[in-house]
Amino acid sequence: MEVLFDIISWVCLVSGSFFCLTGGIGLLRFPDFFTRIHAASLTDTLGASLILVGLMFQAGWGLVFAKLLLILMFSLLAGTTASHAMAKASLKSGLKPLESDDAEKDGVPEGERPSQQ
Amino acid sequence: MRYVLALSTLLSVFWLINSGHYTPLMLFFMVVSVVFVAMLCRRLDVVDGESQPLNLTFSIPGYWLWLIKEVVVSNIAVAANVWGGAETISPRLIKVTAHQKTDLGKVIFANSITLTPGTVSVDLEGDQITVHALTRDSAAGLQTGEMDRRVCLVER
């Protein structure tokens, strides 16, 4: 059982680290602010979650487990709120998001776009 | 009254998890602080169905499971976009309609959109949510209305 938990734990930790790394690389590779938020949310969600779940397997049942669960919950809630606040603030203050050429077809009509106001 | 009870229970559990010291003196301090905070919240008039959504207790765990699945799937998609480079993305702004009746339901919906990588809710006005999507696929996934429907089910 001990060995099994160790294996699961390490799989979680390594894949969590992979997602954190991917988020960091995406932060450098993506072209503008709004697309970079998406890259950062990789680190926020699955990256952090998998690392915390991996640590939970190391901790076993107990107080540390419960604390890690609390950290996970609060970081997920705070992360989404912060991304939304940043995105809203930058759009309201006039930063125009990059849009691909086919965006008009299925997106918001040209005149109604918040970025055009 | 049951909202005050729920808040006190929640605060006590939070205290117990964070403390780890269970001597009588410490537990007495816990009771004092929990009662104080509960009274403070009551006087601030923030103890209601919106801060203590008790009616969601049984409907939300199932939604969370579905949301975790969605988050994992979209994480993999965005990770593929990162390694594929900037040519594989097609960012756009879209508008989705939130069909939830309460403010809390709309917040759950908008927050779930942001939690899923590839879509960020940028603005919420009335029942229109402006969403920035990373690719055509992530925008299309949201426009099917699957998530909207599931949040509506949670809210009932």
TrEMBL record, chain A:
Biased composition (Basic and acidic residues): 105-117
Protein name in UniProt: Multisubunit sodium/proton antiporter, MrpG subunit
Residues passing through the membrane, by range: 7-28, 65-87
GO molecular function: sodium:proton antiporter activity
Top-level taxon of the source organism: Bacteria
Signal peptide residues on this chain, from the entry's feature table: none
One Pfam family this sequence matches: PhaG_MnhG_YufB
Region described as Disordered: spans on this chain: 97-117
Keyword vocabulary terms for this entry: Membrane, Transmembrane, Transmembrane helix
Species: Desulfofustis glycolicus DSM 9705
Automatic annotation (TrEMBL), chain B:
InterPro entries: Cation_antiport_E (IPR002758)
Residues that span the membrane, as ranges: 20-41
Entry keyword Cell membrane: yes
Family: Belongs to the CPA3 antiporters (TC 2.A.63) subunit E family.
Any one Pfam family match given in the protein's UniProt record, by short name: MNHE
Protein name: Multisubunit sodium/proton antiporter, MrpE subunit (TC 2.A.63.1)
Record keyword Membrane present: yes
Keywords: Cell membrane, Membrane, Transmembrane, Transmembrane helix
GO molecular function, one term: monoatomic cation transmembrane transporter activity
GO cellular component: plasma membrane
Location of this chain's protein in the cell: Cell membrane
Coiled-coil stretches noted in the UniProt entry, renumbered to this chain: none
Record membrane topology: Multi-pass membrane protein
PANTHER family: NA(+)/H(+) ANTIPORTER SUBUNIT E1 (PTHR34584), NA(+)_H(+) ANTIPORTER SUBUNIT E1 (PTHR34584:SF1)
